[in-house]
Records
---
Amino acid sequence: MHINIANSADSESTQDKASQIIESCVHCGFCLATCPTYGILGDELDSPRGRIYLIKSALEQNQFSQKSLSHMDRCLTCRSCETTCPSGVEYGQLLEIGREMMEPKRGKLQSLYRYIVRKTLSTPLLFKPAGYFLRHSKISSKAIKPETINSSVLLMGGCVQPSLAPNINHSIKNILAKLNIEVLESSQSECCGALDQHLAASSDAMKKVKRNIDNWILKLDSGVEVIISSASGCGVMIKDYPNLFDSSDPYYKKALQVSSKTKDIAEFLVNQDLSSLKLKELNIAYHEPCTMQHGQKLGGLVESILSEFGYIKKQIKDSHICCGSAGTYSVFETKIANQLRSNKIDNLNASEPKMIVTSNIGCLMHLQKGSSIPVKHWVELLDV
């Protein structure tokens, strides 16, 4: 797909990146079949190919409307299209550029609402009181300490997870204690920056990203071996840190170091001896978040770990389709999010499980609102 950029206010490096991504699209249309919003709405402008055209048009002519912005907003950033694309189009990166460029078209009241939601979720002082009333579950077991310490890891606490579901990180610390691994937990204020980045507030995101990189480099230099994320949404953001910098930026190499040392909890546990652990419940259905299977390319990993404990994998219809959570998507695009959730729960419940498990706090909270059976993070089942 050829592009001629004209009269763009974006930086040259941003223009070059956008051009390369757009030109890699061969207009094959494979992405349409795997796009959740196109599947529901049937409008090609609500598909990856359609949104690429909108961004291309905006870059070439600097003309776009509030309607164009609405089509961008309706994208879940699930990146299912990237998994399907035979040309390797880096759609997620292009989408961020397009959203940032079109953001000035947003109305003042809508901008204020998005700002309030973004700041509330990423500021512990603001979110903790609200999180208390929205809490999904509390800590359900005693804390365990390692008998000896063989290694140390940094566990990403998350900005909302400690308030909404503190048992997730608690369970991880207990599991790793049984493996004689010391856990240092990041503070709740160390947000990964994903909320800001996906809501076209890149300057705020970059402040958090740089602060995190500086803090975590010090941890890695002091003996921490791995940075562990238990929320797949945070994990994919941190692994994408290098994409936020030009290769000439001093932070680029630091971002590469942080990214290379970051692992999802499943990615870390798969290489450990788990013989001392057991599973609380076998009759479960696993929902694999988009950030796990499409973002981090770790599809099937959690179920391979669970199978070691006797779990038999269930075939879930449309398992590649988003549940509708997608960070703050379920807050701003409730109709589509609720339709996707209803479809997902029907498919998960087809095998009549006693519990649904997942790998991301956003998916967990969103699914639980529509589910009559418990929804947990899969690691909680190993804290026995």
---
Amino acid sequence: MIASGVNAPAGASAPDYTKLREYLIATVSQDLGADDLPPEMRKQALQDRLEEALARTKLTLSGSIRNRLLRDILDEITGYGPLQPLLDDPDITEIMVNGPKKVYVEKKGLLEKTNIVFENNLHILKIIDRIVSPLGRHIDSDSPMVDARLPDGSRVNAIVPPCAVDGASLTIRKFRKEKLTIAQLIEFNSLTQGMADFLRACVLGRLNIIISGGTGSGKTTFLNVLSGFIPE
């Protein structure tokens, strides 16, 4: 299981942790509202003000709870909330949010449920809006489905009611930073050397090629590999 999200860490009371988190978010958000800082300076300013606001509460927190609290708040304000740790994990290739307490990932080829949670459906909608708004897109009951891309190229699909009958859902397909090569596909027994040679000849011969398969079967990965055969 992958642990993160807005649920309280071990050793902390869930209601108290949530109240403290909400108080600090409200405090630092108000403080930063008037500042016109570039992104790289904004995060450091936020970190500093969080430390100050937490010190003013005069609460004694363990190191692990304190670090987790600060990270959660930074992710909520500057990142994609509970999803940020999943986006930062290079081994995760797909993130599926089917409800506030139904967050799944595909990691190293295996599907698993995480214990990441959102506060409610409105929290999911807030993160979806944070993803699509910078792209000039919007999602609501009149336009309940949107496809978008994160700055790193990850593909995003979001659906909200009335198309999503059980509440908002979100899927993010991530891509490896290091592209696979044809030699690696042969090493993984995804195809043989003879198949690779044939496909190379097809690309060089400028033949039409259809790449077809189910969700997560590797179509984009395979297309990237084939594009490596295209001459300069």
